[in-house]
Amino acid sequence: MKIIKAVVGVLRNESGQLLIAKRQDHQFMAGFWELPGGKIEDGETTEETIIRELNEELGIKVNALSLHQTMQHTYADRTVELCIYNIDQYQNTPLGIEGQQIAWASVQELHNYQLLPTMKAFIDSITLPNKYWITPSSNHQDEAWMKKFDEKMTQDISLIQLRSKTTLDNRFITELHNKCQQHSIKLLINTIDKSFKESYCDGWHITTNEMLNLKSRPCTDDKILGASTHNLNEALKAQELGADFVVISPVQATKTHPDTVPLGWNAAIEVVSKLNIPVYFLGGMGLNDLDRTLKIGAQGIAGVSAF
Fold it and tell me: Which residues belong to any copy of the Nudix hydrolase domain (predicted)?
């Protein structure tokens, strides 16, 4: 099976809409919409390729860019290894220089288009934040726990995992969810008795054991599903199951689990490179590690006390 290495760029206009292009009749997957870009030529770096491709296809000059995500997708006859770059600054108005149809669309409007398979994971990556806060797993209703939760309502947090090793009262969870909704924060439930039918949440987070015992995605596509993983095989299983993102851990040594051998950055980076869905790093993470995770194409960092 042939391997194709390609790059695409994420362009936004002043309204925050994204630029997409329709594949032409002579191209593989003709008629599908995608991010603009193309194949890497011999001797080119990925950065050189995206700069050249966007100039040839759209007539723009790229002034600043940053890695957004890497992914790999296997079709019946080929595997595509893809680098996605944020085009942070560019000159000129994008045009369909090569005769291709282009369009500006909001994230919500993207669902109205016939998109390449890789676009589903991309949409997840731009709608999920770069920080994922996990609540302490015990003493949920004591004063210290509630104070910490309320503090997150006013901090730069927009995704929270409610983690508990014991059964929680539904009214309590509903109260927390209502607080989150008031602050545009998504709340995922990770409790021992989750049914995947709870209405008082935005989705669920599953443990590694739960994930390994599932045969199919346990919830509808309009809900978020996260999964905890500890190696590449588990992460690939979560992706196959239909998880929207994974958390890989422990990346670095932690004080809470001093006897656990950390994966290390190289192993964590391999997970990012092999998965299509967003990957959060957990374990020994701090805000000082956020830039590093983003530069290698990870979604961001997760933690209880990391931020």
Answer: 2-132
